[in-house]
Amino acid sequence: MAATEVSLPVLRQDGSRSWLLLAIAAVFAAIAFAVEPFEYRLLAAIVATTLASFTLFIRIFSRFRDRSQLRSDQVLIGLIARDPSACFIADSHGQVLYCNETARTRFGVHVDATLTQMLSAHFASPAAVLFRIQSRALHGNKAREDVVTREGHSRITAHSTGPDRILWRLEEFQDRTGAGRGAEQLSLPMLTANKKGVVLYSNEAMRRLLGARPKRLETIFVGPMRRSGEEVDVSTSKGVVRALLAEIEGIGERHEVYLLPLSATDRDTRILADFEHVPVPLAKFSADGALCGANLVARDLLDLKEDQRVMFHELFEGLGRPVHDWLTDVHAERMPGSSEVLSARLLSGDVFFQVTLRRIVELGRPYVLAVLQDATQFKRLEEQFVQSQKMQAIGQLAGGVAHDFNNLLTAISGHCDLLLTRHSRDHIDYADLMQIHQNANRAASLVGQLLAFSRKQTLKPESFDLQDVLSDLTHLLNRLVGERAQLRLVHDMNLPQIWADKRQLEQVIMNLVVNARDAMPDGGTILIETQSVTLTEPMDRDRAVVAAGKWAVVRVSDTGIGIPEDNLKKIFEPFFTTKKVGEGTGLGLSTAYGIIKQSGGFIFVDSKANEGTVFTLYFPVRETSESQSQPKHTDAARKAETRKGEGVVLLVEDEAPVRAFASRALRMRGYTVLEAANAEDALTLLGDPALKVDIFVTDVVMPGMDGPSWVKLALVQRPDVRVIFVSGYSEDALQEHQARIPNSIFLPKPFSLAELTSTVQTQLQ
Fold first, then answer.
1. pTM above 0.70?
2. What share of the chain is helix, strand, coil (3-state, %, to 5)?
3. pLDDT tens digit string along 229-241?
């Protein structure tokens, strides 16, 4: 088709507008002849003449523009008519207005067709591609994009040449690889696919192997897609065929896949000699988790037979998610090889292995290699460390809570004591005040249990004969046991004296006896034995090491239902109990544990279901002097009737309610009290040399400078002043400082009015 013979349709929008203007001009001309006033005739005639002139101008301009567009189209057609690439001129809707000879020969296009219809057999989703290119061309005059086709790839270019005119040019690039027509002559099965796995081309050998023309890669391969150089399982019309995969990257994000069919010889069962006898436990697994082979060392560790085939998840567990998913991720390279500590399912007892997985390729097939290492001891140490950390954290929490509660209870019980001093027994409020006082004491006892567990309670150790204490306690224990159970005591005649808090030890024994009684609902025997034991070497048991030396041992055993194995590791944790709600707080054994540990001893438990339980207590034997065996302050001294006192007391306490109670209590007994909210205020008061102070009563733990620190500074100028330290923590935390401070004693919180005043009075005497 010659360029001069081609004409494209032109826009005729201006023609319709000019006819409309001409009709309006005719209307105004008629008005000019019809109206009577001259002025109106003149105005209508002017409007009609103006519209007629404007219409004539539009017609002339439209004719000129159409001729210009025609000449432009003729020039454009002349340029593309003999272009070796397919060229099209289309409107904005994709309607083909012109196509050159190459386009007609290549695509068989006629003028009524659309670009989408023309290219539908050329590449996938032409409508979306053309719309994307056209949008960019209309905004920037031109656009270009390369697309992958079934024969290779094409470059589509679009130019905006005028109103509703777009020039399209399609350049095709044939493959110079085996994916062209030459691939049909290959005896090796091959195909070409894009990055989404869509098969763009397959040769005759591939179609013959598969029995049909493939459409997607996932329909060809059995299992996940492999890497180049690895064996794959190919699904064919005759079943699954094993082949070696070769993959070559092509143009435009395409890749070519070649298959080399292999013989059906099963090579999975081969285990090389170096693999069998290497002195490292090795096991090989397939993608589905099946054990393909394990060397001699690994079979001995896992207790496997040479031909035994098990799954990975049947051998190991304990990852927190299915172990098969971990192995699959390593096999598919979704994650690099890594190590995990897993428990062995087929072995009895708690046996752990550190399993390291790595992806390997052997004889063209990918596997996951597992390297095993016995981690049983490591896992036990880890559990011991975690348990120790947990108990330490709970202990710190319990100690902190108990300290704060002791301050509150001191204020509550102290102000209650102040009210009781002003109310006689026959007063209407006396019974209510006594209820407050008794419940405050119960709360103080509960806080004492928390402090015992956290090993921060104040102990009053002394040297005593363990046999005498147990004998004196027998009457009370018999009442606790009741008639259904029988209590027996067996003593070692050579039992040495121990150094401990007698009252706290009695509480431990009573807790153990009560638990033994509850474990025997149908009756039984509770046996308390004492024994002198000398360890020649350290004893390692239950995450603890008992040092060599002399120990006094107490065993409390019963014939009850026993303790389940799952609970043995939890029984010393606070608030853990198997009793019903209201039957126990869960603090009994945790309190016993804290008291024994704070006394420098150990407590162990042995139990079997339906055979009973044995608690074994180890107490260190210490040689003590006569002075050490007596407590510094007896209960009798604390309960002595207080007398009117004289002297000046400097009271330093950061808790305002406690300070208010203590100052009022001391003033009631006749003392002059100076108050300070912290150590800095106390030192400021003592800066006056004329001020006379007889005794310091100070809290140990305060914001800023603590009690022992400011007392040391104050005693430099006032060496004769007596000191009383008070704290919600134990005396153990103060002992190192207290030993360096003369004339000082310790008063634990919560304290009553009588305890405070009697302690001050005793210290001043």
1. no
2. 40, 25, 35
3. 677 888 887 888 8
